[in-house]
Amino acid sequence: MEKTVSEAINYRRSIRIFKEDIELDTEKVRTCIHNATLAPTSSNLQLWEFYHIVDKTILKKMVPACLGQNAAKYSKQMVVVVTRKDLWRKRAKANATFIKSSLNNKPKIEYTKRDKFALAYYTKLIPTVYTDFLGILGWVKYTVFQVAGLLKPTYRQVRNSDMRIVAHKSAGLAAQNFMMSMASIGYDTCPMEGSDTLRVKKLLGLPIGAEINMVIGCGIRDEKGIYGERFRIPFEEVYFKV
Question: Model's pTM, two decimal places?
């Protein structure tokens, strides 16, 4: 029986050592990755990819790329969460195409105000925000939006670095979906930020525009895999009711 959301959240720990004699069901892990793709994503652009590593040779090569961490050394499978900000044009076009198909190809004259806004969002606004050239356009847009913000509430995160952050935030949400799904079926994970991202990209054959968000080790927890009791800052120090 799958755990409830609250049960899965409490069950999940970052496991550094997995049982060596228990393998994972590849299809179950794949289902959890599919659940990851249902996570919320900025502008529904889904600027992510998920590399499910099951090949033992590649898993072995991933260990030094993950700086020799136990969570990599003992992993039975790995999932590498990758951001693809460079694919924004393709993903924006896919959204626009989906919207048009949902309108049953009715003529533009019959579009509602909401229909027009949705299409303009992906054909005009997204290109405005994401188009850049060596970071220069980003700073020009940043200046324009800051000035506009003096007069009315305005979206201000329009630099190339800002859009990278947006992509990584969405990828992080997807990664959490994946780990919660794994926890719900009694599978364990360990998200690793510590890696030589260039080596990981080379191992996976990723293009220059791809970025590693995190590598997630997967397996069944060994009793030695939890290094200590869970510690969290007192809730009263991080919770503010406004």
Answer: 0.92
